[in-house]
Specification:
three-stranded mixed β-sheet; globular; single chain; five-stranded mixed β-sheet
């Protein structure tokens, strides 16, 4: 009887914990937000652009995805990695309409991934001819999206592109293999004097269909004051007109978005090492049930 009592008590505690969507605890005045996740979901991290061409990561939480019936790729999926590659590519192309409105990938939606290979960390993507119809004006942005998206897959360090088995070359780049370190996301120079610029990594917000998403931004700036003080100033007054902020002059971080903006920025600039785990995908996530589209 005593064992049953303890078992029921333990289960009760677990249920209470799972029903709690946001847990707050005081830790030097910091509020920690914890998001509920589903055990049966799969995560796919991709990069997108908003209406103003700012790039940001989006963690797609695919629910009830228990089959491999991905349009155009059913016969190509034999392993879990196959599924990751083909479904990720589908999100950037033929499944892009299922993503938040007013986002884009610059890749023609009719593009198909004919096959792929992984050699020493380099993911070779062999795409169809429809890919060549991409807007050349946004060639670099498109390549950034592909590189940053697929480099998140396990064992993938960079990508190489082929079209119908012919190696692709791009006007804006001389190399043919692309890695995340080859590109800067959303970079801006914030001072006319470029003789002594420092790099500051910031997080602003973009509004898409009334939802907020964090956007990583790199600012080249002359820092004449304490770096943390300069960061606070830049967070309160965005240097990018198309992006917004929730950080105010009072540094009130009870707002979840402001909290993530501020502490992700401090972490990326090696100013603060918080003793809890926060990441951009806590905010930048999107639930999708593929079964309703099958």
């Amino acid at each position: 009887m005593l064992e049953k009592f303890y078992l029921k008590y333990f289960l009760f505690i677990i249920i209470i914990f799972l029903l709690t969507l946001i847990i707050t605890k005081k830790n030097e005045g910091i509020i920690v937000f914890i998001k509920e996740t589903s055990i049966d979901s799969e995560d796919y991290l991709i990069y997108l652009a908003d209406y103003h061409n700012s790039l940001f990561p989006l963690n797609i939480i695919v629910n009830d995805n228990n089959n491999d019936q991905i349009d155009f790729y059913q016969d190509k999926i034999n392993t879990s990695f196959d599924k990751q590659v083909y479904l990720t590519f589908a999100f950037l192309t033929n499944y892009c309409n299922y993503l938040p409105q007013e986002t884009k990938t610059y890749i023609p939606s009719t593009t198909r991934l004919l096959d792929y290979d992984l050699v020493d960390g380099l993911l070779v993507l062999n795409v169809s001819e429809a890919f060549l119809d991409y807007n050349k004006r946004y060639e670099k942005e498109m390549l950034k999206i592909l590189v940053y998206t697929f480099s998140n897959l396990e064992e993938v360090k960079g990508i190489k592109l082929f079209c119908n088995n012919q190696e692709l070359n791009f006007d804006t780049l001389s190399n043919t293999s692309y890695y995340p370190e080859d590109f800067l996301l959303n970079s801006y120079i914030n001072n006319n004097d470029i003789s002594d610029l420092e790099v500051i990594k910031l997080y602003y917000l973009t509004i898409i269909n009334n939802d907020y998403y964090l956007v990583p931004v790199i600012i080249f700036d002359n820092i004449e004051m304490d770096k943390e003080a300069r960061i606070k100033t830049l967070l309160v007054e965005p240097v990018v007109s198309s992006l917004v902020t929730k950080v105010d002059h009072e540094n009130n971080f009870s707002n979840k978005l402001a909290y993530y903006q501020y502490y992700l920025t401090l972490i990326d600039n090696n100013i603060s090492k918080v003793n809890f785990n926060i990441k951009i995908t806590d905010i930048n996530n999107y639930d999708l049930n593929l079964s309703i589209y099958g």
